[in-house]
Amino acid sequence: MTAPGPRWLRWLLIASASLSAIALFLLATATSNTGLFAQGYDNLLILNGVLVTLLMLVVGWQLWQLRRNLKAGVTNVATIQLSNSSGNQLNFGAFVPGIPAAGTGYKSPFRNWHDLGHNPVMNGQNHKIIVDKWCMQKFADLIARMKGLQEPGGTMLDNTLIVWGNHMESGDNHFSQRIPWVFAGKGGAGSKVKVGTAASGASISNAMADICNIMGVTGAPHMTGTAGAV
C-alpha cells in the first residue's frame, strides 16, 4: 500500500489534467481550421510550454522521491512511464536542444514521440536520434547517481536492477518483435548479471524470467527460459 502524496502534488496533477483537456480541445479545434491554428499558434505554444514545465516538475519530484525512498528502504520496486502508449503527451521541442516545437503535423502539431516515430527526419535532420541520445544520457545519469550511493555489499546500483524498455520495435512499424530492452545493475548481492548481453531472438517471457531470477523469484513453471542475462 502506498501512502498518499503531498496535497500540493495532487492539486498540481489536477491542474495539469485540466489544462491538458483544454489544450486538447484547442488543438482539435485549431488543427481542423488552419486559419484559426495560424492565428492562435503562439498561444498554443505558450500553453504547451506551461504543460511541459508542470510535467517536468512532477517527473523531477517523482525521480527525487524514487531515489530517496529506494535509499531509505521504503520500497524496492519503482516504475516510471513518461508518456502514454501513443506518445503524444510530450513535446520534445520544449526542452530537448535541437528539436523544433512544431512537427510534421502527424496526429498533432508538435514534435512528440508519435511524430518522431513516423517521421524521424525533418529538414534534413534525424530528430529521433537526437531525442534518443538525450534519453540515453538521462538513463546514464541515473546509473551514475545510483553507482555513487554506497550501501551494504556495494553500491545502490549493485543492489538494483534497472530495466529500460519499449513496447514495440519501432514507432513507425508497431512490430512486436525485436523489442529493445536495456538492463543495468546487478540486482543484489550474489547475482550474476551478464554485462553487454545481446539477446537477439529471445522472447519477452524469457526476459521477464531473467528479471525474476535476478531478483530471487524462482520456481514458477513459466520462468524456465532465459534471454541470456543470467
How would you describe what is shown here?
This protein has 3 domains: 79 residues; 57 residues, no CATH class; 73 residues, no CATH class. The mean pLDDT is 75. It has 230 residues and is mainly alpha-helical. The chain contains 6 helices and 6 strands. It has a two-stranded antiparallel ribbon with strand order 1-2. Helix content is 44%, strand content 7%.
Approximate shape: globular
Radius of gyration: 20 Å
First CA to last CA: what distance? 31 Å
Overall pLDDT confidence: 75
H/I helix tally = 6
Please sum up the structure shown.
It contains six helices and six strands, in the order H-H-H-H-E-E-H-E-E-E-E-H.
What are the salient characteristics of this protein?
two-stranded antiparallel sheet, 6 helices, mainly alpha, single chain
